[in-house]
Amino acid sequence: MRFPVLVFDIETLTDHQSGAHLYGLDLPEDDLEQALMKIRRQEAGTDFQRLPLHEIVCISGLWIDESGAMKLFSFSREHFSEAEILTKFLSIFDKRHPTLVSWNGSQFDLPVILFRAMYHGLSAPSLFDQGEIDTQKRYNNYQNRYHHRHVDLMDVMAMFNGRHFQKLDDIAHLLGFPGKRGIKGYFVPEYVKTEQWLKLTSYCEGDVLNTWLIFLRWSLLKGQISLSDHQLWIQASIHYLQGQPQQAEFLQIWRETSQKTAFSAKDFPSTAN
């Protein structure tokens, strides 16, 4: 495992203003969402909006450095504009060059970040350079599907075959991790509208934590860490989360779901049958 590691996830809403501009709509705000959804269904047969129209409302990450220290963080619309969220996140890559870990990041998170950064006139060569500035990036950059600077777990675990893509929630549950913690539906728009910022960041951070735990299991499979090191990382993660009050529910559900498989039951030996 190459340190530092940055596991990340984003949450988004439809950018009504950009959508209205793109399609030449002159409608009240309350009508734009339905109009944009209808257009999208006609275009692609889905409600899932085009990537450039995803406005970022939260970016969460888990930073793990060479010493094993962890830091869970979120930049959200509670305190920052979208441009400020992006600026803060992109500045990480100006200082360090972490191994980036995501779930579906190559098809969703990074393209959305690219489009929205361009929309706000931001520059991010440390993340998007493919060798034009740093020649070493030709052989190991964050965009190339088969490089290792960005590990999109959904992609690599499907062996780069879209027919094998799996949902983060399903794989997390399968391996004995919390997954979405019983949350049914996508409540991010409601969280933002009602200013439930803690729920928003907790939700995004939960996806980051599930991705981190799956990454540990993937690293064990690949032989990049030993079985004993895997257990040490699991215990370090549990210890860290015990000091994160906003993730108390995640930790409690992890304790329960870990007992569903023989291997993950070792994560909490005091509760094992």
UniProtKB/TrEMBL annotation:
InterPro entries linked: 3'-5'_exonuclease_PolB-like, RNaseH-like_sf, RNaseH_sf
Domain of life: Bacteria
Keyword vocabulary terms for this entry: Exonuclease, Hydrolase, Nuclease
UniProt key word Nuclease: yes
CDD domains from the UniProt entry: DNA_polB_like1_exo (cd05782)
Domain Predicted 3'-5' exonuclease PolB-like as annotated: residue spans: 46-254
Pfam families referenced in this protein's UniProt entry, alphabetically: DNA_pol_B_exo2 (PF10108)
Gene3D superfamilies xrefs: Ribonuclease H-like superfamily/Ribonuclease H (3.30.420.10)
Molecular function terms, GO-annotated: exonuclease activity; nucleic acid binding
Protein name as annotated: 3'-5' exonuclease
